[in-house]
Amino acid sequence: MRGATLRQLRAFAAVARHHSFVRAASELHVTPSAISLQIKELEQTVGLSLFGRSGRAASLTRAGELLLVDVSRALLALKDADDTLMRLRGAETGVVSIGIVSNANYFMPRLLARFHAAHPAVQLRVAVANRGQLLRQLANHEVDLIIMGEPPADMEARCASLAPQPFGILASPEDRLADRRAIPVAELADRGFIVRETGSGTREAMDQFFSDAKITPPRIMELTSNETIKQAVIANMGLAFLSFHTAAVELQARSLVALDVVGLPVVRCWHVVTLADKRLSEAAESLRSFVVELGAGLIARQFDGIATPVGPGTPVAASVPPSDGVTVEVSGP
Q: What's the CATH class of domain 164-267?
């Protein structure tokens, strides 16, 4: 490994992370051919094949899997050294990697814009993925912090609550249940749903709600995009269980309605999550503090006035009082 360069190691880690030379090139802002060259030279240096190619996918060989452990550790050590030097210089600069679940797309840009205005020297790198993918990235030190719903119960993490997030069942205004009040959950047992993918927080919340209600509605289609799900519901293709924060505009315009189902909405909290044993850089800690301190108020103001039913025949605003932002420790098994 003495002949390996830092550029080669970063290219190797990026390809391993994305299983793609093209996506690795996009992350590192180089061409795919440059990534291929770096990997080829690294393989020649170590004398072993690191990736198996199958179509466009790049999968790690056994040698690649073993090497990735040490490369990830080395790159993390370099980042920690950089963060330490930043703190010594007293400079709030550098790169902060933040992961957000797709539901947070609807308010995080405004929060990040406010943070950037106050901290223009800090570069933000944002990854959007589902809950399961983000937790893996956090565990692998690929992101500094994540914004998500329910905090992880199986890893040692530091979590701070931000604001409540209401979930409910959305329908087209043309749906036969659109004007009903106090709909029993049992009436949804034979209704088709357009659902999020396994691994998303929305899917977990939906599965838990239906499990508690002891019903299993049929699934018309599974999608990874809230936007596509909303369009399918607007077209009256079926119903959807989604966060009201993802459909604020459509609810306000009445292109979607929230069904008044007994027991809904299900209210979960937004959280900002970091690893318990990870020392954040000054810039990352500033972002975390900013989101915890101002997030609840900004989220509440953004979604204020979106009418959604919270009980039998009782329409109220979707926003709720800001949380207290109390930090809690979540321990692993």
A: alpha beta
> What is the DSSP secondary-structure string of 249-266?
HHHHHTSSEE--BTT--E
* Token pair for 241: 């269980």
Q: Which residues contact 117 (CB under 8 A, 6 or more apart)?
A: none
Helix (H) or strand (E) holding 281: none
What's the mean pLDDT in 36-54?
90
Q: Do 6-71 and 164-267 fold alike per CATH?
A: no
- CATH level 3 topology of 6-71: Arc Repressor Mutant, subunit A (1.10.10)
Q: Are strands 94-100 and 122-128 parallel, antiparallel or unpaired?
A: parallel
The first and second tokens of residue 224, run together, are 């990874």
Q: Tens of pLDDT along 83-141?
A: 666 666 655 678 899 999 999 999 999 999 988 888 888 999 999 999 989 999 999 88
Task: Using the structure block, give the residue that is written with the tokens 């983000």.
Answer: 134
Which residue bears the tokens 């799900």?
229
Please determine, for residue 317, whether its predicted confidence score (pLDDT) is greater than 50: no
Residue 135, token pair as written in the block: 């937790």
CATH topology of domain 85-162+269-306+318-330: D-Maltodextrin-Binding Protein; domain 2 (3.40.190)
- The full DSSP string for 201-242 is HHHHHHHHHHHHHT----EEEEES-HHHHHHHHHTTS-BEEE
Q: Where are the domains of the chain?
A: 6-71, 85-162+269-306+318-330, 164-267
